[in-house]
Structure formats: C-alpha cells, structure tokens
Amino acid sequence: MSLPILVAIVAIGIALTVAAVHFTGGSRIAAIDDAAHARALFLTDFPEERPEEPRLTSDRRSAFMGLPGGRVAIVQSFGDGFFTRIVSRIDIAAIRLRDPGIVSIRFKDFTWTGGHFTFADQSGAAAVHTALDPAQKPAGTGV
Fold this sequence. Notes:
This protein is an alpha+beta fold. The protein has two domains: 1-28; 35-132, PH-domain like (Roll), CATH 2.30.29. Helices cover 30% and strands 29% of the residues. It contains three helices and seven strands, in the order H-H-E-E-E-E-E-E-E-H. It has a four-stranded antiparallel β-sheet with strand order 1-2-3-4, sandwiched between helices. It has a three-stranded antiparallel β-sheet with strand order 5-6-7, with helices on one face. The longest helix has 21 residues, at 3-23. The chain is elongated and about 70 Å long.
C-alpha cells in the first residue's frame, strides 16, 4: 500500500472517531442545574459536611459553598463531569476581585491552578473573595 493512501486512511479514521465521540455526547460540557444540584454533587463526595447555600457562577460551571471552620467547598465542571474540592485561605496563592462580579483565584495546588469565576452579581463575587482572601480576618464560614 502506498504511503499517501495509508495517510488518507488514518486521517479519515481519526476524523470519524472524533465525530463519533462528539455526536454521542463526549464533548458535552457539564453544567450545574441549580443550588440543590451543586449541594448534591458536593455531598456525594463529602457526605459528612454541611455546606451553606451555594453561590453559582453565571455560566453554571462552578459553585462555592461555605463550610464550618472557614473552609470553602467548590464544585466545578470538568468536561462532562464534576470535581469537588475543599479549600481554605492557606490554599490560595493569589486572589483578586474584579468588576463586574469576577473573582480571579490562583491556588497553590499544581493539580488545579484556579481560574476566573464570573458571578451574576457583585455580592456573590465579594462573598467568595472575602471567604478566600488570605489578607482577610477569619470570620464565620464565609461564602
């Protein structure tokens, strides 16, 4: 078999595989339906915790919930699934509150460096910022 025919067969095979994955839902990005869904996702991994009311980002891909001891629960979509984390102020490398309603967070953990989280209102962003900002005095549960 000639090299150009082999290359064409491989290219077509890869394209068909990618298309099959896409059209069967493999490229779907998960979204958090509502506050109850965010809480249920978190409690699946941490059933012993008692999270406060979730604050969802405007794209419904992340949720932040206050926990006892000044900790914060985070649920975030990752591809077609979700991951959950519990973080506190000591886990934050940098945090910045930006207008309108955006919190930029960089974590010390190399497995998840952070991101930019946009909230529908400034109060949600301010609550998350206050709960996680290492410069803030520890208060109640936070978010």
